[in-house]
Amino acid sequence: MSSLEHLQNGRYAVLKKLGEGGKGVVYKARDTVLNRVVAIKMLKSAFLSEEAYPRFLREAQVVAKLNHPNVVSIYDIGKENEKQFFVLEFVDGMSLRELMGTYPEGKCDIQTVLRTSMDVCSALQYAHSQGVLHRDVKPENILMTEEGIVKLMDFGLAKMLGEPSITQEGIIVGTVAYVAPEIALGKGADARSDLYSFGAVLYEMVTGRPPFPGEDPVKIIFSHIHDYPVSPSRLSPKVPQTLAECVMKLLEKEPSKRYQSSADLLKSMREIAEGYLREVLVPSLKPVILVPSPRPPAAREVQLIDRVEEMGLLREAVDRAARGEGSLVFLYGEAGIGKTRLARELGAYARLRGMQVLYGRCPALFRMDGVPPYVLWSEVIKDYLQVCTPEQLYKVMAIIQAKFLSLFPRLNRSLAQFHRQYR
Fold first, then answer.
1. Given 261, 266, 289, 413, which residue has the most CB atoms within 10 angstroms?
2. Does 154 qualify as catalytic in the annotation?
3. 95, 120 in Cβ contact below 8 A?
4. What is the pTM of this model?
5. Catalytic residue among 31, 119, 136, 154, which?
6. Closest CA to 362 of 294, 284, 419
7. Are residues 251 and 265 in contact, defined by beta-carbon separation less than 8 angstroms?
8. Distance in angstroms (rounded) separating the CA atoms of residues 162 and 156
9. Fold topology of 1-90
């Protein structure tokens, strides 16, 4: 460690060792020039010859251009004592491998599986659109921030390192557990190969074991090429059938039988998530906030028809918000075209992403004389009062409580009561 206290003539000050894998050792460090915390992945040996290093540099430059909230960014690469290293975005959290270790038998809850899947799909979709394959999708390369944002790391590293054939000596068992059959056969990789690997990760998340467990890499590779795993729903009855079918489709031997793009997989995952929320989660929510706006007795439920484009745009806004990218979206149109139903579907999707959904309702607002100020926000706050704890209320409103009380006199009693309970 002493020899790595500083890198690049003192620019990077190594703070501590974070972990070690088959290819390298990861350190937490500080970039003394830009004054930010970074992660440094030091490769274990001099993988590259002087002749191969220019190609390595070109590949790294391509990957470094990736800029997406669900992708760990590469800031810099270099050499130290003839060893290559990467300077990466520092992610304060845990790997998916570590997260799975916190669950009984390593089986993640379905909500976590679906939320993680959508973020990973988003990362893969972006990278593939930029012509970059991951080539090593596995739980160790999927990170979770403390805010719950999923980030995929080590994009293109296998290609940059000129990794040897999958059957050559020295291959890591943890990697062959997720390798696509076409790569094992030496046929090369495309975007569908990444999807196969992600399917193997999903399989392990819901069952607690990889599709083909074992210690012999040759047997595991043989199974990837010739065998089919047991359906996840048979190993874990809590797995929705739609999710089990999705995983098995990802694990098809022939790439043409899998999802053909990350975009296709993301669309399917969203549909599975919404179906799971409606069938399993909504009946257990207390209180249930999915209450439609008042309507005349003769009115009937509006069917959500031909709203694919609108729903896609709204889901993307929710996905961005889940990554910390706030925005404001206006949904407008004539009465009776399905705005309320669309908003309810969006609320269900947002809950699945771990968000709290609040509603403000303004029936016949513009026919009212002397509309109270901030009436919409008054409704939102009343909605929040029904579900929040005293601690949450205090943290959200304590600083500006006086202002809220002056704006919403009707809330004075409720807020004061919550405040006394917290104190």
1. 266
2. no
3. no
4. 0.67
5. 136
6. 294
7. no
8. 10
9. Phosphorylase Kinase; domain 1 (3.30.200)
Q: Which contiguous run of DSSP H or E holds residue 394?
A: helix 390-397
Rounded average pLDDT per 10-residue block, the chain, 423 residues:
68 89 83 93 70 71 86 87 85 91 90 92 93 91 87 76 47 73 88 96 96 92 94 92 96 96 94 81 42 36 54 80 77 69 74 72 51 63 65 56 57 56 52
Contact 266, 118 (CB under 8 A): yes
Tokens of 308: 């694919």
For residues 327 and 320, give the distance between their C-alpha atoms in angstroms, rounded to a whole number. 8
Say yes or no: do domains 1-90 and 92-284 share a fold. Answer: no
Q: Do the strands 142-145 and 93-95 form a parallel or antiparallel pair, or are they unpaired? A: antiparallel
CATH class of the domain at 92-284:
mainly alpha
Q: How far apart are CA 141 and CA 136, in angstroms?
A: 8
Among residues 83, 64, 70, the alpha carbon closest in space to that of 8 is found at 83
- Determine whether 119 is exposed, middle or buried from the number of CB atoms within 10 Å of its CB (0-12, 13-18, 19+): buried
What kind and span of H or E run contains 241?
helix 241-250
Tokens of 257: 């039988």
